[in-house]
Amino acid sequence: MLELKNLGVKKDGTAILQNLNFIAGESDFHVVMGPNGSGKSTLARTLAGHPEYTDYEGSIEFKNRDLSDLNPDERLIEGLMMGFQYPPRIKGVNIKRFLTKVLEKVDGAEGPETKEEKIKSATGELGFSEDLLSRNINDGLSGGERKRLELLQARLIEPEVLILDEPDSGVDVDSLELISDQINHLHDQGTTIILITHYGSLLEEIDLEDARVHLFKDGNIVTSGKADLAGEVDEKGFNQIYEECGCN
Length: 248
Ligand code: ADP
Ligand code: MG
Hints:
Bound molecules: adenosine-5'-diphosphate, magnesium ion
Distance between the termini: 31 Å
Largest sheet: 6 strands, mixed
Order of helices and strands: EEEHEEHEHHHEHEHEEHH
């Protein structure tokens, strides 16, 4: 479904991602972990088609189609969505109008009442009151609320592949539960999840039975394993694991 071949990204002459090979199939669950600065967000932005990361080496294929000529909104309509590590505030863009437009793009013909119902129900599921809908995107929203709004969008869009960049950073315990519930729900519905995270607390809430955990170092995956690898990271830290696997 999503295949990266020898992906390389440079910034200011320095390689941030290099020779990265990765495949995600239908309904897969991938967890990407790695120290600060190892390139995780760069990977997410490159996949999403962020304009600062369009100049890459190697290839990104989604559903057997090269993605290089698709901009971020075209990628979203194709079924590839990213949730930001730091969701930006967008002045003057009303949340309800925005969500309605997004649904028009991805769901097409269904009537306005159905869209309104879907939006209201997802708003409640993510722990927001309906007042949220009259506000502007991320304007005055806390870090945790911004992350929940990303998951609300994912819930409505139901993408085929969802890349989440640290949906747990800056999030309190209650929000964490709402977020993990949505991740589990989307995965149960068949969405392929690529979850970038630092810490185990989110992973404890997530059904990782079939997950693959990948550890990043200097812009590449240096080792992969099952869910217990995430537990090992919590216990030992990255450096010790990299020493033990000879990944340094
Ligand atoms: P992570 O998400 O794993 O913490 P990032 O992908 O954000 O790491 O960053 C990896 C490295 O690439 C960092 O050293 C960062 O400073 C650098 N980097 C990322 N984006 C840019 C950019 N647009 N220009 C210059 N350097 C960048
Ligand atoms: Mg990051």
